[in-house]
């Protein structure tokens, strides 16, 4: 996935997610910085007034009241650790309202009513580079808490010297005496490729700290306590089911939620998710009410109070304290919701859901055995990620094949029915027809797992993920048809078509062709430069064949 495709570009600084209007100007101050981050915030927590923004840098950056609350609620509002902990945040997108990456610190202070002071360093960005921002916070947070504002200014100036995050590029990013080497993902990257392995850095001093990914979490590390239930959790994520993750810390909560939402890649996760949700969040009443069904949200929490208030949610994952001595962590068990207690609830996946697919015992044996034999964590992480990727692909490929069969044949895309008519329409998606096609083109062709695949597809059709996938694929197909139709028009002999057409029909052609050209030039559908050029020449030729008065109307000077 091209990580920058949804983030877009920013010609000028302004409010988070908003673009300044006007013509493009020369590079503005902090232009390179804003290609990576919107701003860096320092948040303090006061027992009486709650969280408050202490500092925003660069100082000219403006946060709205809503954005300020967004930036603080994931950090200091309900922190339960004893000392430094980083709480990584999820991708910042136009449709999600979730917390950014932050690093929190608590220090004992007898002068404070609560017995300690609490402060958070928060990175605000629209890029989904979770791993990079984790590493960045790990480097700059200790320096900041030691040297405060001057350190923050120096770090931001260093980031302002970084090259732009161009997809497909391997970059060296210097900060606080360390060089981070990263590869910016692009659409052409293969899931199992590691571009950084081929990137030499013998001449760089200091030797770079190489990040294997800027956006992918270590799924094996995140899923260690739930390996025996990972396939059930994959199904719940695939179906967009409401799920509460009750974890011992914001870090574990955030990483587990992000790992869960990423385990269905390459399918886009279309539901909401909150890596670290607290009682101070504005949706607290909405999520805890029992008067309506829980929303399709993955909720990460740390306060045991939520066991009682969210007891009506259909799926609750309780995670225990991480094992510090290494070795095989205790695996959570599948438990009935009726066994859910308050406060002292034991670790487990509390759900009445029954998995549709049989568990892959061979994979589980390899993962748990590898952990016991202390195999390299990277190898186990790659094994788990590959399994989940192939499982999702096996599920999606039949959908893709059936969807492709709904596309009109290219030979039916002709300009002669009539020339100014819209291209042929995509046939509707009939769920029963698709299910019948699974007999000869189902997931069994690429996946060895047995089970009720039909039942899984039937539930998937009711999920937000099917709706999101179908809308996106249909949009892409419509754009392809538009491109084919424009190419057909440009390759047609328009002069021959015009011979028996009225002026009204010819003018209608000009208007339709102009509309298509504008959309194509705006990259609303993919066409070659040659096609754009021919379309422009055809428009000029058709207008030139009309009377002078109509030419003046169509091409006013």
Automatic annotation (TrEMBL):
GO terms for cellular component: recycling endosome. Residues 38-476 form the UDENN domain. PROSITE patterns: DENN (PS50211). The keyword Transmembrane does not apply. Keywords: Guanine-nucleotide releasing factor. One of its GO terms (molecular function) is guanyl-nucleotide exchange factor activity. The keyword Mitochondrion does not apply. Signal peptide: none annotated. InterPro entries: cDENN_dom (IPR001194), DENND6 (IPR024224), Tripartite_DENN (IPR037516). Pfam families: DENN. Belongs to the DENND6 family. This is Protein DENND6B isoform X6.
